[in-house]
Target: MFS transporter
Amino acid sequence: MREHDFRQLFVADAVSQLGIQVSLMALPLVAVLALQADQFEVGLLAACETAAFLFIGLPAGAWVDRWRRRGVLIAGDLVRALVLITVPLAWWGGWLTMPQLYAVALLIGVGTVFFDVAYQSYLPHLVRPDQVIEGNSRLEAVRSVNWVAGPAAGGLLVQWLTAPYALVVNCVTYLVSALFVVRIRRREPLPVPSPGASLRREIVEGLRFVIGHRLLRATASCTSLANFFGAMTTVMQVILLARVLELAPGAIGVFLSVVSAGAVLGAVAVRPIVARLGQGPTIWMAMAFSAPFGLLLPLAERGWLLWLAAAGSAVSWFGSVVYNITQLSFRQLLTPPRLLGRMNATMRFLVWGSMPVGSIVAGVLGQHLGVRPVLWIAAIGQMLVFLPTFLSPLRHMRVLPTAASDSPAKELSTA
Model:
């Protein structure tokens, strides 16, 4: 935190994440409460939010490796602010429709693809290698705090302003985030493309690096499955709370804040957990031991069962955050700098590309089976996602290879 440039990224991320939590509350509630969307329409909207990772995730990584990451971050914030402001304007004018929400979600997703790939690739340029895990922990901690404060704030804003107008706050946070990124002093040199470089060749190189590495392949499989079932849960959770249990937006925000408290504790606890268990065991154990608590969500009813379900989901989030910080730091330290953008984009393509599929599956199943059966399917599926990492060498590896450790990286990079 004494590093000026890291502080700017830290504050930018904190403000941006607060806005994201408001939009995560407000955008589906616009569909459910303002436009009376059904289960399939809510699932399709959630799919649109992450579809960009599936369709442009791979070329985005190659492009980010050709550009200065600071500029990509600023552009990502500005694009998302401009697109999102159209929702309250359309609601005020009386012409807001579900197709517009789909388009807004898709375009915000495009901005998020470039922002996230650039942000994860930029951190190793702002801190020393021995500070990468600490940097990720700090950023994940502030993100987790926003996961606690954001839903409650978002729920109150939706209750006071209505869902469409609450999105104005989100636009402001993106603009503030861009201002802090502008304050970062350190400038990257403009990457020089290698002779004969082509977009297709660079994309293939990133794919080969990730898929050809046994450890990266295992974490990609685990995270992809977790995001698939997590997307199913997210879609049905909104409908369960808002329509089945008929909770007010403020109460929904408090519920999600209780759930997100687990993420804060996970971000704080990750360093001592890794020190105690080692990197590899932490990765699989964090997912394996926390997932069963997600079985409490389908049982949620008004009253004490609602808050028991929130506590169970908080434990699941605790494990997810511990897993995510550990595997993300490993990926960043393993990857040569010239491949960071493509590695992150390939991973995002693989692990976020499953989310729109999960959202649509949830919407279709929700129409035929109902909300709670889909939540049961998702909760049981989450209990199995740790298997790819458990069945890999990660199970016993207390110290994982880095880009500087030649022999382990070479030995494990064969498919």
Summary: DSSP finds 18 helices and no strands in the chain. Residues 4-34 form the longest helix (31 residues). The mean pLDDT is 83. The CA atoms of residues 6 and 82 lie 26 Å apart.
